[in-house]
User: What shape does this take?
Amino acid sequence: MKSGRKKIVFKNINLRITAILVFLISLFIVWNRQVYNEPTTALFLVKLPPKSETILQDRDLSVYDFGGRIDNSINNFEISARSRELSKKNARDFIFKHWQEKKRAYIILEFGGVDNFSEFHVFIEPNNKGEWHIVWRKEFSDFERGFSSNISNEEMSSVKYKIAAKEDSLYKLGTSYLIFLDNNGEEVASL
Assistant: This one.
């Protein structure tokens, strides 16, 4: 007699287990992508370099009389020596007039050589205490520093004319030029 039980035969069991595992792994991958593909917010810490110093230092130039840009570069062959001297004289007159009248003024003086360049931004203005002074903001670059810009500041408390004598080697004998004095009455610059 035959019993009522059927015999279960597992043909290709390895193939069937593999198929089921692949199916389950695929479901997991799809589910995982759906869970982790939600929009997220990422925060990055960005460290910016400090704000570089500017020549103007947040001055409102609309309240300053502008004396122009005076090119005194010795290597600018487009400007004759006579024109260069006339430009310097006009710059001196502009500075001295505004100093005498206590009027805000601003002028740029350019000086350059073969391997360097300087711009002097000259401001005639009251300081924080209301006292009038002259500020020279110098932007300097040269070959040795890779022509990177360096800014320095010089404050003067007075300006006056001087006639060039023998010992004033920078100026032709008899030339009327300006000297700029610090709080101690010492000459710190000339033009």
